[in-house]
Amino acid sequence: MKNTVKLPVIAMASFLTLFSSCSDDDDSNSNDIYLSEDEIPEAIQSYITTHFGDNSIFQAEKETENDVVSYEVKLSDNTSLEFNSDMDIVDIDGTSKLPDSVLPEAIRDYTATHYPDNYITDWELELNHQQVELDNNVELEFEMNGDFIRIDND
């Protein structure tokens, strides 16, 4: 009898603790602004026109966190692009094959040789390396110059 009373009490306490620990991540150091197409920096618009000309911009956002500005743009084909404060591309997440023009030649050559039946859907510039994801969910890491490092199993 004691255990049947304790179990609901423990379950309720656990639920309340979990529920009260959730937050909406409303950080006073973060400021996100949705941009109209006219407000998107020219360098970003030019990048999109050059490499993703068949797509239109679905949504653009300027994000400021701890005084660091970045831009996130979602395209009509569900590709997401992230740019740093210098308007350099740092992350491309897609569901279809990325244009060859957005990928370093050494990375394109490596994947074509070692994964001829697959294509790159995501590319990310990390602090000291580049990472790509293939359509079979294999993630590959490369040095900044494009030399292969390893398969990322994380």
Q: How would you describe this protein?
A:
The protein has 154 residues and is of the alpha+beta class. The protein has one domain (26-152): Inhibitor of vertebrate lysozyme, Ivy, CATH 3.40.1420.30. It contains 3 helices and 9 strands; from the N terminus they run H-E-H-E-E-E-E-H-E-E-E-E. It has a 9-stranded antiparallel β-sheet, with helices on one face. The radius of gyration is 21 Å and the shape is globular. It starts with a helix and ends with a strand. The model is unreliable at 7-28 (pLDDT under 50). It comes from Zobellia galactanivorans (strain DSM 12802 / CCUG 47099 / CIP 106680 / NCIMB 13871 / Dsij).
Find the CATH topology. Inhibitor of vertebrate lysozyme, Ivy
The radius of gyration over CA amounts to 21 Å
Largest sheet: 9 strands, antiparallel
Please, what is the average pLDDT? 86
Low-confidence stretches: 7-28
Protein name: Conserved hypothetical lipoprotein
Domain Putative beta-lactamase-inhibitor-like PepSY-like: 70-149
Keywords: Lipoprotein, Signal
Signal peptide: 1-22
Tag the structure with descriptive keywords.
154 residues, alpha+beta, Inhibitor of vertebrate lysozyme, Ivy, 9-stranded antiparallel β-sheet
